[in-house]
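WARN retry 2 of 3 for item q-0093 after timeout on previous attempt; input resubmitted unchanged.
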Amino acid sequence: MTGLYAAVRGLHLASLMVLFGSALLLLRLRRAVPELALESTHLRRVRFAAIGLALLTAPAWLALAALQMAGDGALLSEALRLTLTGTLFGQMLAARMAILVLLAIALALGRQTALCLLAGAALATVSVTSHAAAASPAHFAAIGIAGDALHLWCGGLWLGGLVVLAAIVAQRPEAPRLSKAVSLFADWAMIAVALLALTGLVDAAIIVLGGEGSAARLYLGVLAAKLVLVLAMIALALTNHFRLLPRLARAEARAAFAGNVAWELGLGAAAVLLAGLLGLLPPTL
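OK item q-0093 returned
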């Protein structure tokens, strides 16, 4: 059941990150390159799929958590009630489900600012019950929560921004100011990557060093695999920025760029799924 639990958790995180990052980049493009800030039909479908996935995985996450709590012979209905009302995890999940309803309304109305703020708030509710929050010293849980939330926001900016970028390149490959839109994303992504790496290291230190006992090998192995995926994404991003962006007016460069963006999205999705698994594994033994 751990694999299913990790997949549900990872897909839930990925959907929220896509919604947050896509809304944030569209807001930035609206100011700098307004002709490329329009939401295409394909992008709209992807974002509605993301909100649908978030709405489906939220109750699934609750049910799986209740199953873990229930144990043999316990009633699932009673475990669901106790998980939802008697734990901080359940309370945060209930708050997130309410936010998801507002997210769906904001997406239907095309309210990018509201969508960005609501998706960011939804991600923050995940951080409240994260390993980083639990491992923080007494009275300093806010540090762990803030660091983990920033980590999720930066990852969302990168992943959701890539979704928007892929849609723009597919729909408007010969747009006169395509390189400006790509450059805008690259500038923001550089900052996001730096903060992503920093907050990831801080979170890992808090989680591993803040727990009792020695670090669990499985946890460290999954963490290392996630780091490898992130490093591969960084390598592709650097190739896009320094090698392909200056030649984006050429068709072959645009094709290579689109391929790299697709690879970045795949690696990013895999990294988020591993993050879903990390949230379930004991960091120390």
